[in-house]
Design brief:
By secondary structure, the chain is an all-beta fold. The chain is built from no helices and eleven strands. Strand 7 and strand 8 form a beta hairpin. The chain is globular.
Length: 125
């Protein structure tokens, strides 16, 4: 099992930046799929970004492409989401997720086995 813990959320003005971190309790091998998801009140959870751990191959939702960057530090065993040019519509609870194998649809929450508790991101106008 893998325990995930997000951090780095907070409040920021539109156009600002935040970097979210997701610390994993154990090494996420190269065969893992890692992802970031978000959920606003009353809305479905949606995929933001995904990555095949240990492989330079990333996936992004159209709404964040060019603004967000997902990355992983294998030494620190930590997943990151760099968020730039934030918009009010980015406001949501952000979750880190992992799966012990490749997922054909890494932006779909259904295939992931492990989830963090979330960190709140609030973007004001």
């Amino acid at each position: 099992q893998v325990q995930l813990a997000e951090s780095g959320g907070g409040s920021v003005q539109a156009g600002g930046s935040l970097r979210l971190s997701c610390a994993a309790s154990k090494y996420t091998y190269s065969s893992y799929t890692m992802g970031w998801f978000r959920q606003a009140p009353g809305k479905a959870r949606e995929g933001v970004a995904g990555i095949y751990a240990g492989v330079d191959y990333q996936f992004y939702a159209d709404s964040v492409k060019g603004r967000f960057t997902i990355s992983q530090d294998n030494v620190k065993n930590t997943l990151y989401l760099q968020m730039n040019s934030l918009k009010p519509e980015d406001t949501a609870m952000y979750y880190c997720a992992a799966n012990g194998g490749r997922l054909f649809s890494p932006l779909s929450p259904q295939g992931y086995t492990y989830w963090g508790q979330g960190t709140q991101v609030t973007v004001s106008s």
